[in-house]
Write a structure and sequence with these properties.
two-stranded antiparallel ribbon, single chain, 58% helix, two-stranded antiparallel sheet
Length: 161
């Protein structure tokens, strides 16, 4: 016999840290889909650290300043495609860090990387519920649009084969 569920009970509200984590996962996917669109290579993208190519679904959205730094966790410029192996080593392997840093400097400039990413990572950030819900909704909309674009790009490839 099943126990009766209490009526009128609301589902448990997600905590702000849980919402930030969900938004971060969506943003990492956005970064990988954007890379797949930019590279226009049948869904293959390049790891910024080792230059290995793999399908965007098999890569990670790796953070230069680690995910434990809440202030840069949702900073798109801090997230780029990393091979799964490189992402595991990020922060523990000097070569991965050096290559990632050099990529960022080439992409954004040394001043931006040193001041806006590295230093920002050290400043604590407290998200408000409304702020993170708005960001998450924006990320979800952007992701849907980008995935639609990517699927159209894939369709064009199939038609050309």
């Amino acid at each position: 016999m099943q126990s009766a569920k209490p009526k009128g009970r609301k589902p448990k509200e997600r905590t702000v840290p849980q919402l930030v984590e969900e938004a971060a996962v969506i943003l990492q996917r956005i970064v990988r889909v954007k890379a797949a669109i930019a590279e226009n290579n049948r869904g293959l993208i390049t790891c910024v650290a080792c230059k290995k190519k793999n399908y965007w679904q098999r890569m990670n959205g790796g953070h230069f300043a680690g995910r434990d730094h809440i202030n840069t966790k949702l900073l798109e410029e801090n997230i780029h495609p990393l091979d799964v192996h490189c992402n595991k080593l990020n922060g523990h392997d000097g070569l991965v860090l050096v290559n990632y840093y050099e990529y960022l400097v080439e992409m954004y400039g040394k001043e931006f990387v040193d001041n806006d990413i590295r230093k920002a990572a050290l400043i604590p950030k407290v998200y408000k519920r409304a702020e993170i819900l708005e960001s998450k909704a924006e990320f979800e909309q952007r992701l849907a649009e980008l995935e639609k674009w990517l699927s159209c790009q894939a369709y064009e490839y199939r038609g050309a084969s």
